[in-house]
Structure formats: structure tokens, C-alpha cells
Amino acid sequence: MAEAFEVANLTFTYQGRPRPALSHFNLVLDEGRTLGVLGHSGAGKSTLLAALAAVVPAVKRGTLSGAVRVLGESLAGLKPRDVAGTVAFVFEDFDAALVATTVEDEVAFGPRYLGVPAPEIPARVEGALAACGLDALRGRRVESLSGGQKQRLAVAAALAADAQLLLFDEATTDLDPAGKAALKRIVGELGERGRTAVAADNDATQALGLDEVALLGQGELVAYGAPHETLADAELTARAGVAPLPYLDFFERRGSDYRLRPSVKIKKRAYENEAAYAVPGPPTVVADALTFTYPGGVTALADFDLTIYEGDFIALVGENGGGKTTFAKAVAGLLEPSAGTVRIRGRAPRSLPAKRRAQTVGYLFQNPDHQIFRATVREEIAFGPRQLGLPAEEIGRRVAGAMAAVGLIGLEEEDPFAMPKGDRQRVALASVLAMEPELLVMDEPTTGLDRAEVASLMEAVVALNRRGTTVIFITHAMDVAARYARRVAVVAGGRVLAEGKPRRILADAELLSRAGLEPPLAARLARELGLDAVTGEELACALQNDGVQNRP
Amino acid sequence: MKEPLLKNLHPAARLTLLAVVLALLTTFNHPAYVAALAAAVTFAVVFFCRAGRALRRMAPLAAAFVLLSVVMWPPFIDAGRVVARFSIYRATDLGVLYGLAVGLRIVGMLFAGLAFLAVTTPEEFGRALQSFRLPPGATVTLTLAFRLLPVMFETSARALEAQRARGLEFGSNFLSQARRALPLVVPVFLYSLRSADQLATSLELRGYRATRRPTPYGTEPPTRWDWAVPAALIACAAAALGLRLSGHGAVLPGRL
Questions:
Q1: Could you tell me if residue B211 is inside a domain?
Q2: How much is the average pLDDT of A265-287?
Q3: Phi, psi of A222 (to 5 degrees)
């Protein structure tokens, strides 16, 4: 079989950076194969994909040595336009890469400019829209789509180009679990059609089912091989900063012929040590028949009812465009409900003066870059308390406290714009925490973060909750919801379908499927084994309780 | 829901129609004639484009334009009888009528543009321009502008929300508002820079070249029926021009 690409001894250092993003990197992939590229933030995943599309070094400047060949042709001296049609790229910042104003025109753009004959274009557009579940949205304006819908659109646009090599750079960050599953299926089907696909991700489960997986760490290839073998090695995945799949490993090695008592129950969630969280108090946020319609006519919330208690730690999960962010913004007083009410301790958030509201609700935006604007980390975090007119001493105390809470001590004078995304997200969180809000609302705070960054951020939030802060967080990462939330609300079609303890909600496959979700992998395995668990830790605990580890 | 009537016309025909309407509105400078044309345009906006709601939102702006024009034009017109004088301000009857006509003309043009945009997507606009053999680069630039403007607004709105969520108050004073809006500029500017870079790369990788003409998609070539409406209007415009040249429809014959 011919080679789809060959990366030979590639070293690339971005202009102005001291260390190479990729160092003496070698990789060969045959045509028709699918490859998952996993690694921590800054491991070199995006640089590898950019090199395969001639974006590096033609657009993103730097020093390059070694060679990259795609379909036998060297990319030396070529620009992205020279590989158009051969290579299709889904960018991590997908929103900035969309070029048309309607869904259909976006998908048709590539084929039109690649010179595809007119009679062929409708079939390509139909196929790509159907594959990404966008048929019903074909006439919608791009700016009216949710983040996840836009990411699906970016994938559809790449598919319509029908390129030989498709590159997906963290193309699942904004997708709901159904969208992630669909993308995994799409990548698999590309291989069956003789296309080559490379998907970079932080989530190891996205590589399961692909032909190969490459683990990257610090710009080097840590491991390469079949996913079920490579990802079963917890030490290797840890070196790449990727969450391992211990329960999968366990299951694989044990085989399926051992028996478990179906009555095995664990008394306590392994992680959910109740002492780690605040004791829930009286209702603090009450949404009653909350309805919100955007000016374009899209109804995001329709009779949304939810009660959140003081000291709560609740995860909102659900399909893209289901209304989670709209609800969060209504709580933060950033939107005026079209009908119904949302109240914090009996008062409408928008009726509170801006400063009082900022002290009541802290809102962490999904993209920290929409918030950060000061030259140093310290100034950025101090901005909010300054708006409150606090004395300098109090501002200093709050800044120090917020920085300590999220582990930023020592980085006070750093330029936040030059920091990795995980650190920028922590700066944004610290700047919200410095307001010492009673209620913290976080919109997909772990998007694009690697395993260590997710753990660091969420542990900081758990510590805050222990001190009494009520936490509402929106997430598509079911394992994060399973591990950290005390309560989960499933949101779809602008309504709350169900809410309750994670173990009940996240194990209910039928309920979750109605919101485009599926239980976390650990919950699915636990169900197969007749166990009651939704996290890897709980599963391991349940298995130990049952004495499974002593069985042959 | 049925599509607005004008949506059925080919985008190139719609663009021609717009050009002819704009020309028609500049044919006369008598307020009665211009008012009749502006009323016809308003009728088309409401019934052929179903954009009555947008029109209602624009009504205060339209009224302001007319008022401003009626006040601003007279000092530049000497002809006619003086009907008002305040200090150095002086207005003649012909000046007021001319100001009224120009105000109505601007409103008619605004409404005509609104009608066009209500039934035409940026891509259709681009295709219309391509029908007139404009270079592909120009049409893509146009659609990108339409795409990026909402993105810029959205980024600005997010930045605004982020700072408001941190207690930033803008106040009622303009200077204080401008000073406090400064934090918004940084994220929007940085995002725009990053986006421009990303967008250029995305365009290249998707086959775009300024000189490459794209395959037509989504719009059939115009038929003779598509051209029938603009042709009829061109005939009306020609008749209007004849009327004007014969001395009708002008309060100031020497002016546009």
C-alpha cells in the first residue's frame, strides 16, 4: 500500500520560541489508514497536523528541518493552497475558519473553489450534511449556530472537499457525546473509503476504533501502535499526559469469562467524598418556566425549570444548542428572559446593580480570550476587585487568594496572552474568584485542556465549593461530570429532562440518549458487569470490594 | 412558510431591480413625486419582501433623516420665498421642499436596500455580482465581510459580557463610556488578528484563489422571466426620465 504521508526527522521551532514544538519526529502512515494523535497541551499535535497541510512553515513561521511528504510529494516550499483538494483541515479554532454565511454555502464552498463539476456538488453537500447531522440546519445562518453545531459544520465542510488526507485538529472540543461518537464513526468510514484521516485529541476514547494511535509528549513520539494495545499501557499514556483507560485495560486483560455477583453495590462514590463538598442549603437559584428566544427567532429555553441549592455543585449536560449556555447567562444576568423567571435568593439577577451582581455571580466564559485584556496576570485578576472600589490591601489579599486557589503563584508578572490555554483558563477563573462570588457559573471550563489541566482546574473548584461557593458548570465531558458533580441536570430542547445524583442520571442510557448523550465509558462497563459505578475510580473500588482482583 | 415574492427572482435580476429603483429615486426632486416612489418602495418592502417588522424598526431613523434633511438643506438654497429666519439661519419654501424631497429620497433608498437584503443572502449577492463578471476576489471579500461582521459583534458582545460580569459599569457619560469600553478593544483586536490569519489559511486550504472562478451552485441561470420585472421597471425609469426632462417632478430644475 502506498504511503499517505511520511514525516522524516522533522524538527520545527516557532519563531520566538526557545524550544522546538516537534523534535526529530518520524512517522509514516499508509493510505486508507486512520490515525489518532494524542498528547498533552503543547505536545506538538497541532504542529504535526499543520506540517502535513503545509501551514507550517508557510503560514506559521519558524525554523524547520527534516522532510514532510504527502502522497509521495515533498511539501518543501509549498503553501497551503498547493495542497488544497489533497488535504482537508478542520481547525481547532473552527469558528474563525468558517467563510460563508449559511450552512449550505459553507459546505459547498470547498467543492466550488476546487473546481468540482456543478452536477456533483449537490450530492457532496447532501452527503456531508447528513454525515454530520446538519440536514435540518442547511438554511440556517452560520452565526446563529451553537459552538457544537459550528464545529460539526467545519467537519462537514472538510468532508465535502473529498480530500485524500483529512486532518482533524481537536475537532471534538465543543461536540456533545453524540457528536463525538458521530465524528469517530465518520473518521472510521473515511478509512473504509480509502481516505486517510488523522485526528488529534486530548481524549483517548476518541482514538479507540481507529487503526493506529500516536502518543506525543514534549514534541516527541512517545508511542505508536494499535490503540487497544497502546492505550492499555497506563505508563505510556501518562507520559503523554493523556487520561489512561485503566478499566479498559483491566477488562481487556481479564477477558469476559469471569463472573461477578450482580448484587455488588458500592456504598460510597470513590471520589465523591461528601466531606470534600459544602453541605447543600436552601434554594438559591430558582428558574421557573424560564423562556428565552433570541432576536433571530431561535427559542433556546422553553419552560425551563430548575432549582439549585446553596452549596450545590451541579453539572448541566446535554446536546449542542440545548439551552445550557443560555440558562447560565440568564443566571448571570447577561440575558433578560422572554418569559418566566430566574431568581437568585428571590431577586431577578438583572435587577441587581452591576457591582452587586458581580459579587453574587461569577461567570467563567468558555473562551478565556474573550475576557483577558491586561498585560500581566496580577493586573488581570485585580481588575474585578478594582471595579468594586475595594481598598488596595483587600485587592492584594483577594488576588493572592485567587492565585493560590488555582495554582498560579509565581506567575504574577507573566503576560497572560503568552501562556498556554490551560493557564489562561486558570487566569480567567482566578479573575472571577477574586470577586469572591457566592455562585460560580462555568461554561465548559475544561474544553481543550489536557488531563492534568482538567484535574488542576476542577480540584480548585471543588476546594471553593467546600468553602461554600455554589457551583454550576456546563460540560460535554461526561467523565468530568461523573467525577466532580454532586448533581447532574440533563438539558435538551430548552428544558430540563431530569436532574439528580450522578450515579442515577449518568447511568440512565435511555434518558441520556434523549439529550444526545451516552453514559461515561466507566458507567457502561459497570453496567455490563452488573456494578453500580459511573467513574473509573468507582469501578475499580467496586471490583476490589467484590474481590475481582484476586480472581484468575 | 411561502417565500417572499421577490425571492423568486434571480439574484442578478434583484440587483438590477435595486439599481433601477435607486436611479428612479434620483430622477425627481419634487417631494410629491419622491414620496410616491418612496411609498411604492415601502409597499414592496412590506408585501413583496415581508420585511415589515424590520421596516418598523427603521421608521424612527427614517423620520430623523427626513427631519434632518428638511432642516439642513434650506440654508444652501437661495431660490424661493423666505419662510423662516432665525439669526443666521434662513429657509425658503423651495429649500424646505427640496430638503423634504432629498430626505424622502434617502429613506426610499434605505428601504430599497432593506428590501434587497431581506430577500438576498450575501452568497446570492456574490453570485449576482459574478453574473455581471465581477472578479471572484471581490465577491468573496464581500461575503466574508458579511460573515465576519457578526463574528466581530459577537466577540465584542462576549467581551462586554465578560467585563460586565466582573462589575464594569459603563455609566451614562459618553467620555466615561469610551474610557471604560477600552477593555473591550483588546480581546476583539487580538481575536480579529488571530481570525484573519486562520481565515486566510482556511480559504487557501479550501481551494480559494482570487483569480479562480468558482463552480456555480445554488442558483440556476436567470431566465427571461427573471428579467421581465427589471425590464418593466427600466421602462418606467425611462418614462420617468422623459417626464423629468420635459420639466415635471422638480422644485429645483437645475438640481438632481
A1: no
A2: 63
A3: -85, -40
User: Do B152 and B114 have their domain in common?
Assistant: no
Are both B145 and B116 inside the same structural domain?
Answer: no
Q: How far is CA A495 from CA A39, A306, A475, in A?
A: 36, 9, 16
| Residue span of the structural domain in which A225 resides | 3-253
CATH number of domain containing A203: 3.40.50.300
B183 and chain A: CB distance < 8 Å anywhere? Answer: yes
Q: A108 to chain B: which residues are within 8 Å by CB?
A: 217-218
Query: What pLDDT does residue A156 have?
Result: 95
Sign of CA dihedral A99, A105, A109, A110: positive
Q: Tell me: do B110 and B22 sit in the same domain.
A: yes
Average pLDDT, chain B: 84
Domain count across chain A:
2
Residues A190 and A313 in one domain: no
Distance from C-alpha of A121 to C-alpha of A390, rounded to nearest angstrom:
61
Select from A46, A325, A371 the residue whose CB has the most chain B CBs within 10 Å, as the one to mutate to test that interface: A371
Residue numbers in chain B where pLDDT is lower than 70: 1-2, 170-174, 177, 180, 182-184
Q: Is residue A394 part of a domain?
A: no
- For the segment A284-301, what is each residue's pLDDT rounded down to a tens digit? 999 999 999 987 678 899
Does residue A205 share a domain with residue A70? yes
A30 burial (CB, 10 Å; 0-12 / 13-18 / 19+) is: middle
pLDDT per residue over A356-405, tens digit each?
Answer: 898 899 999 887 877 888 888 999 999 889 888 899 999 999 999 888 87
What DSSP element (H or E) covers A433? helix A421-433
Q: Which residues contact B128 (CB under 8 A, 6 or more apart)?
A: B10, B11, B12, B14, B15, B120
pLDDT in tens, A130-152: 999 899 899 888 888 888 889 99
Q: β-strands A495-500, A487-492: how paired?
A: antiparallel
Q: Which of residues 94-153 of B touch A (CB under 8 A)?
A: 121-123, 140, 143-144, 146-147, 150-151
Q: Are residues B107 and B234 in the same domain?
A: yes
Number of compact structural domains in chain B: 2
Verify that A87 and A213 share a domain, yes or no.
yes
Residues 6+ apart with CB under 8 A from B255: B29, B98
Contact call for A96 and B206, based on CB within 8 A: no
Residue A512 backbone zone (phi > 0: left; psi -120 to 50: alpha; other: beta): alpha
| B110 shares a domain with B166 | no
Residues B122, B140, single domain; the answer is no
The torsion angles phi and psi of B80, rounded to 5 degrees, stand at 100, 180
User: Alpha helices, DSSP H only, in A114-218?
Assistant: 121-131, 147-160, 177-192
Select the more confidently predicted residue: A53 or B150.
Answer: A53
Residue A260 has pLDDT above 50, yes or no: no
Give the percent of chain A with pLDDT over 70.
91
Which residue of chain B is at minimal alpha-carbon distance from A143?
A: B150
Position B35 scores a pLDDT of 93
What is the CB-side half-sphere exposure of residue A86 using CA atoms within 13 A?
18
Question: Are A316 and A208 contained in the same domain?
Answer: no
Average pLDDT over residues A160-169: 95
- Residue in chain A closest to B150 (alpha carbons) equals A143
A40 located within any domain: yes
Peptide bond into A246 cis (omega under 30): no
Burial class (CB in 10 A: 0-12, 13-18, 19+), A69: middle
Predicted complex ipTM: 0.75
Q: Is B219 within a domain? A: no
The answer to whether residue A258 scores a pLDDT higher than 50 is: no
pLDDT tens digits along A84-126: 999 999 998 888 888 888 899 999 999 999 999 999 999 999 9
Q: Residue A133: what pLDDT?
A: 87
User: What's the domain range around B154?
Assistant: 136-205
